[in-house]
UniProtKB/TrEMBL annotation:
<comment type="function">
    <text>Catalyzes the ATP-dependent conversion of 5-aminoimidazole ribonucleotide (AIR) and HCO(3)- to N5-carboxyaminoimidazole ribonucleotide (N5-CAIR).</text>
</comment>
<feature type="binding site">
    <location>
        <begin position="265"/>
        <end position="266"/>
    </location>
    <ligand>
        <name>ATP</name>
    </ligand>
</feature>
<feature type="binding site">
    <location>
        <position position="106"/>
    </location>
    <ligand>
        <name>ATP</name>
    </ligand>
</feature>
<feature type="binding site">
    <location>
        <position position="212"/>
    </location>
    <ligand>
        <name>ATP</name>
    </ligand>
</feature>
<dbReference type="InterPro" id="IPR054350">
    <property type="entry name" value="PurT/PurK_preATP-grasp"/>
</dbReference>
<dbReference type="GO" id="GO:0034028">
    <property type="term" value="F:5-(carboxyamino)imidazole ribonucleotide synthase activity"/>
</dbReference>
<keyword id="KW-0658">Purine biosynthesis</keyword>
<dbReference type="InterPro" id="IPR011761">
    <property type="entry name" value="ATP-grasp"/>
</dbReference>
<dbReference type="InterPro" id="IPR005875">
    <property type="entry name" value="PurK"/>
</dbReference>
<comment type="function">
    <text>Catalyzes the ATP-dependent conversion of 5-aminoimidazole ribonucleotide (AIR) and HCO(3)(-) to N5-carboxyaminoimidazole ribonucleotide (N5-CAIR).</text>
</comment>
<keyword id="KW-0067">ATP-binding</keyword>
<comment type="subunit">
    <text>Homodimer.</text>
</comment>
<comment type="pathway">
    <text>Purine metabolism; IMP biosynthesis via de novo pathway; 5-amino-1-(5-phospho-D-ribosyl)imidazole-4-carboxylate from 5-amino-1-(5-phospho-D-ribosyl)imidazole (N5-CAIR route): step 1/2.</text>
</comment>
<dbReference type="Pfam" id="PF22660">
    <property type="entry name" value="RS_preATP-grasp-like"/>
</dbReference>
<feature type="domain" description="ATP-grasp">
    <location>
        <begin position="110"/>
        <end position="295"/>
    </location>
</feature>
<feature type="binding site">
    <location>
        <begin position="181"/>
        <end position="184"/>
    </location>
    <ligand>
        <name>ATP</name>
    </ligand>
</feature>
<protein>
    <recommendedName>
        <fullName>N5-carboxyaminoimidazole ribonucleotide synthase</fullName>
        <ecNumber>6.3.4.18</ecNumber>
    </recommendedName>
</protein>
Amino acid sequence: MAAIPPGSTIGILGGGQLGRMLALAAARLGYHCHIYAPEADPPAAEVAAQFTRGDYTDAAAMAAFAQSCAVVTYEFENIPFDPVAALAKLVPVRPGTEALRISQDRLFEKDFCSARGIGTAPYRAVANVADLCAAATAIGLPLVLKTRRMGYDGKGQAKIGHVDDVPAAFAALKSDALIAEGFVRFHRELSVVLARGTDGSIVSWGPVENIHRNHILWRTHAPARIEPALAAEAERIARELAEGLDYVGVLAVELFDCGDHVLVNEMAPRVHNSGHWTMDAALTSQFEQHIRAICGLPLGDGGRLCDAVMENLVGDEIDAWPALLAEPNARLHLYGKSEARPGRKMGHVNRLYPPGRAPDPEVS
Ligand code: AMP
């Protein structure tokens, strides 16, 4: 497969901060980016060569966009599937549509893992209250009820601690496309972010530990402080998923550390918030690596230069930017969003430490 050389145009579906950081990394390698997004003034457009404002369902605008690009990628997985599949007939779309189809649906994701003997929380598809009662009997309580599609940052989820909660939980989500999962009593949450090239080579940054606040990722500690055997298991699983999907690009796999084993929670077919630390603390960042992968270039070295703690700046936390700029070991990244609404990711800071010197996740 011929490489797409620097100077070519990369299309990015979606205009958020992930698209912005992809466009910046692409520009550094001499590529031009064309952003396609429905918003008027998305953060990615500000740093890209071209921007088309359009709905993903506008077939004519999407076809014109495809014409201008040597390859197309996407920065979020909740993009309407059919328009992306139509686009893939006109221009290479990487990661491919099969990875998108599976990662758009929590049930497909878990079935994909189960078929490979990869552990997940016990789960059942739920279309109605009777299914939910049956799931509670089969799996036991507590349960987490989730929408199969379009959930993010804990949205579209309800915990069920008692059978009496079943009707209210079902009414809260009210959909015939739900999944009930057994509640996992995990020690910590991990993710493995890796890249797979068009030649099948894989470069991983290794497992990191993720800490959430109000269901939004707050901090990522790199590396995760886990036993080498558990780290190897998490890594093996992420590689197996990437190979099973014949994946091209950066893939993030979120896992629960259950002490002596790990379970897959979900995967994201894109660059991931828990990989932002690589911008300052790895030889090749996840953004550069994704561009390399989708353009068919050799992957870069994923080696860690130092330990890092990434912290998201959510809502008005961005107001701390002067103090953050003054921290000697901190590297600040702001997304250029005009309005700091509660819950909105406005930027992140990477704090860098010599190996073994980062604060413990428990006390930081
Ligand atoms: P998700 O949208 O699936 O990533 O879920 C958001 C968060 O809810 C996760 O990061 C976990 O903290 C928690 N969570 C999700 N599923 C489960 C589960 N089956 N058991 C326990 N906690 C869960």
